[in-house]
Amino acid sequence: xxxxLQGMFCNRLSSQLALQEEKKQGKKQEQLVxxxxxxxxxGDAFYTSVVKHQKAAEEEAVALETHWQExxx
Length: 73
Known about the structure:
73 residues, mainly alpha, 2 domains
């Protein structure tokens, strides 16, 4: 019985750890300039990352809005 309980506990911890790591990855994507180094703000690479970031933020906002609309029904 101890082995079964330990297995259940390990499964719960692994799922919680996976969720925490997933949340950390999401936060890292929100920062465009996170390392403190200067950036050329008009450069093509930075501009494309800004566009991708804005598009992802808009998609997330739309997904959240549809989630709340479905929940209210």
